[in-house]
UniProtKB/TrEMBL annotation, chain B:
The lineage of its organism: Bacteria, Pseudomonadati, Pseudomonadota, Alphaproteobacteria, Rhodobacterales. It comes from Paracoccus maritimus. Residues 1-314 form the DUF403 domain. This is Alpha-E domain-containing protein. It holds the Pfam family Alpha-E. It comes from the Bacteria. InterPro entries: ATP-dep_Glu-Cys_Ligase-2 (IPR051680), DUF403 (IPR007296). PANTHER family: BLR5612 PROTEIN, SLL1039 PROTEIN. Transmembrane segments: none annotated.
Length: 493, 318
């Protein structure tokens, strides 16, 4: 038996912490508490300790071959090189106990309900604004607010049907929401495929650990979509997934989900509007479509209503939507709820609409259009994370403790030019999870994106996408920035 | 089924068959150049074969003079040549990727492996590759894909569309190969019936993996009439015009039966008509009418059937 060297946690926790707290800051390690292995990881620890030396390399190569063969790649066109890239997959799973998960689940569902209530409200009477809890300007002058759908209430009042909530952990019971994704969160195919690959490679692990399954997700998604059929549909609804096409980086996911749900994967050109309905072009002539799970952004949905140069959408789609001939998931305009400026008000939404205290905390956020916040942030840039309000993918952000003085000064100028485009947050001590790296096993920072389904019921499969920052000390988990993925386990009772 | 899906399946079939044709063409060319006594050396033959695939213009523009290496590069690897093996495999795989949901994992696997292996070959040094292994690579992988289709795909409309693509493409390819033999390959009319003539026929039979089958079916001599009969009218020959067309008709019937009266079936009607016209001929009639004239007519009819498939099914009825 050969043990992998477990790299010194302190060494791995690195500069980010050192800068912040004079080297005293500790990250929450999800597997180890000092020398002790935490309960959920006990069996995994045996597995690692009895793993032969060359076994890991062999299995890692096998996993990569499987991914490539199945075709799970994310396509990056226009950068040269191989357009089909693999997201690095780490074989070391991340584990939650049942009780931990239950708490998370309640928090995620609560947040999902509040976000949908907010959307229903701001496209209706706007009570939360009248009550002075959220500034009108942030909602009505938001780029993601769609005037075209004001007053249109989608079936069951649900605007966002698939909500991906990005969570980070800083302690045993401390979870924070980093951001909400109410439009078209991606990554669920990795949750499903990571599990498939793990079960195929390590069946014995699944026999020893009792792990909640996640493969019911596609059936639940289809049920959710069918449950929000439009008023004019009085048969079993026909659902489709609308993709921008096979050059899109998430195309694999689109076709994967369509396949598992047993629905057609359509492009804009496959659909057309005739009278009060939307149809798809089939070999047997036109076929009516009732529910569209769209994976294209609002501006591209309908060239007659939004961007006239869009070739991805369907002319006339919005008219059919407004008159109840088709459901669009997520509903046009849902993006206003996941904006980084609106984010700070989500706990307020929970209190306002649900009369409950939020179970999941927001990360403290300074909004730079407020004078006090602005002063504080500018004085403490080296300690903070600054993000663009509309940015995504880990681009256009400053991680203060990891930046050089020049980078900070450069960013300072960008902020000064347009303060209202930025928010700032403290550098969180993201939890770490053991990860296979070149030298053996070492802690790497992780986050979590569970996928919450909202239709006639609110559902959350026990699991999600764990992203891991593979670079030592890095806090950025995005796949475009050197992040990888892990299988996420919820142990059953 | 989405019209776009059907269209991709149809073209996936066509491109796989076309890849195979390109590889066989390479094989024919290579064997013919081994024959010493042709008039203008091997360049002539290669030009003829490029004409058969409709790509001699593209070749001349890009490469100029004909050499064995350039031909291999062009017919097998070149992405600027839309009919090269690499182009066709890539397009077939791209079609497959677009309609991933309509394929079984076995078919996708076979298609994807073919593509990944192609990428590996492309990285190898060209001098390490011989023509025979390139041909074998192609026919091997296309056969694997076809085997996966036949053993795992549902016998639904998608399956019919794939095979329709195969059938029409194969009919077209065999007709073109025959045409090039008679119209272009043989340098002068007095060569008909000569040793060169019969050698070229054998090469074509070999390229169609049919030289043994031919000897089983006809025994002994290779004569123009018998080979033409074998490749045009023999219903046992797997690549003959009549077999290819018969299979296309069979799949068009399958589609029409499935979709019922409400969906137009002009392609099926046309294909039936052409098949009947083939069945009503014998090889002497075809030679009397002129082989080249007959083949031109046939290639035109295959084009017309493809157009009708497009109109009946691939536009989506709007």
């Amino acid at each position: 038996m050969v043990r992998f060297p477990i790299i010194d946690e302190h060494q791995a926790s690195l500069r980010a912490g050192a800068v912040l707290n004079g080297g005293k800051m500790k990250y929450y390690n999800e597997m180890f508490e000092g020398e002790r292995v935490r309960d959920p990881y006990a069996r995994l620890n045996d597995w690692i300790e009895t793993m032969p030396d060359d076994f890991r390399q062999m299995k890692q190569a096998e996993a990569e071959a499987l991914f490539r063969r199945i075709g799970i790649t994310f396509a990056v066109y226009g950068e040269g090189g191989d357009p089909d890239r693999l997201i690095p997959f780490d074989m070391m799973p991340r584990v939650f106990e049942q009780a931990e998960w239950r708490r998370l689940e309640r928090g995620v569902k609560q947040r999902a309900r509040a976000l949908n209530a907010f959307l229903r409200d701001v496209y209706g009477r706007g009570e939360i604004i009248r009550a002075g809890r959220i500034p009108a300007r942030l909602v009505y002058r938001n780029d993601a607010y769609e005037k075209a759908v004001v007053g249109v209430v989608p079936p069951r009042g649900v605007y966002s049907h698939i909500i991906g909530i990005d969570l980070v952990r800083t302690g045993k019971d401390e979870f924070f929401v980093l951001e909400d994704n109410c439009r078209t969160p991606s990554g669920v195919s990795y949750m499903l495929e990571n599990r498939e690959i793990m079960m195929r490679m390590f069946p014995q692990l699944f026999r020893k650990n009792r792990i909640e399954p996640v493969d019911q997700y596609p059936a639940l998604l289809r049920r959710t979509l069918e449950s929000v059929a439009p008023p004019k549909c009085n048969d079993r609804p026909t659902c489709v997934i609308l993709t921008p096409g096979h050059y899109n980086s998430a195309y694999y996911e689109h076709s994967f989900l369509a396949n598992l749900m047993g629905v057609e994967l359509v492009e804009g050109a496959d659909l057309f509007v005739d009278g009060e309905f939307v149809y798809m072009r089939t070999t047997q002539g036109p076929k009516r479509v009732d529910v569209i799970y769209r994976r294209i952004d609002d501006p591209f949905l309908d060239p007659l209503c939004f961007r006239p140069d869009s070739m991805l959408g369907v002319p006339g789609l919005l008219d059919v939507y407004r008159s109840g001939g088709v459901s669009i998931c997520s509903a046009p305009g849902a993006g206003v709820a996941d904006d980084k400026a609106i984010y700070t008000f989500v706990p307020e939404m929970v209190r306002f609409y649900l009369g409950e205290e939020p179970l999941l905390q927001n990360v403290q956020t300074w909004t730079l259009w407020k004078e006090d916040d602005y002063k504080h942030v500018m004085a403490n840039l080296p300690d903070l994370v600054v993000k663009e309000v509309h940015g995504s993918g880990g681009y256009g952000m400053l991680v203060g403790p990891r930046a050089t003085t020049e980078e900070i000064e450069l960013f300072r100028k960008k902020i000064e030019a347009n303060p209202s485009n930025y928010i700032a947050q403290p550098t969180l001590s993201l939890s770490t999870c053991p990860t296979f790296v070149e030298e053996g096993i070492a802690p790497r920072h992780v986050d979590l994106r569970p996928f919450c389904l909202c239709g006639d019921r609110i559902e959350l499969v026990p699991g999600g996408l764990t992203r891991v920052a593979l670079r030592e000390g890095s806090l950025v988990v995005n796949s475009s920035q050197g992040g990888g993925v892990k299988d996420t386990w919820v142990l059953s009772e | 089924m989405l019209s776009r899906t059907a269209s991709n399946l149809f073209w996936m079939g066509r491109h796989l068959e076309r890849a195979e044709t390109a590889a066989r063409l390479l094989d024919v060319g290579q064997r013919i150049t081994l024959l010493p006594n042709t008039e203008a050396g091997y360049q002539n033959e290669w030009n003829s074969l490029l004409q058969a695939s409709g790509t001699s213009g593209v070749f001349a523009e890009k490469y100029g003079e004909v050499t064995q290496e350039k031909i291999e590069e062009f017919v097998f690897f070149d992405r600027d040549n839309p009919s090269s093996v690499a182009s066709c495999i890539e397009k077939a795989r791209e079609s497959g990727r677009i309609v991933r949901t309509a394929l079984t994992s076995e078919v996708w696997d076979a298609l994807n492996v073919a593509y990944q292996e192609l990428r590996k070959i492309e990285r190898k040094s060209r001098s390490k590759l011989d023509t025979a292994s390139l041909t074998e690579f192609t026919t091997g992988h296309t056969a694997t894909v076809r085997g996966a289709i036949n053993s795992t795909q549902l016998r639904n409309d998608g399956w019919h569309f794939m095979h329709l693509g195969y059938g029409l493409e194969r009919a077209d390819a065999t007709a073109r190969l025959l045409d090039v033999k008679y119209f272009v390959l043989l340098p002068r009319i007095e060569f008909v019936g000569s040793g060169l003539d019969s050698y070229q026929w054998q090469v074509i039979l070999r390229a169609l993996s049919a030289h043994r089958a031919y000897h089983w079916a006809y025994g002994g001599d290779v004569s123009a009439g018998r080979v033409a009969d074998f490749l045009i009218l023999n219903g046992e020959s797997p690549r003959s015009l009549i077999t290819s067309l018969y299979e296309a008709v069979w799949h068009l019937e399958g589609i029409a039966r499935r979709y019922g009266e409400a969906v137009p079936a002009a392609a099926r009607d046309k294909a039936r008509e052409v098949l009947a016209a083939l069945q009503g001929r014998d090889i002497d009639m075809i030679f009397d009418e002129g082989l080249h004239e007959f083949l031109s007519w046939f290639i035109g009819e295959i084009g017309a059937i493809s157009m009708l498939v497009h109109e009946d099914y691939l536009l989506g009825g709007s």
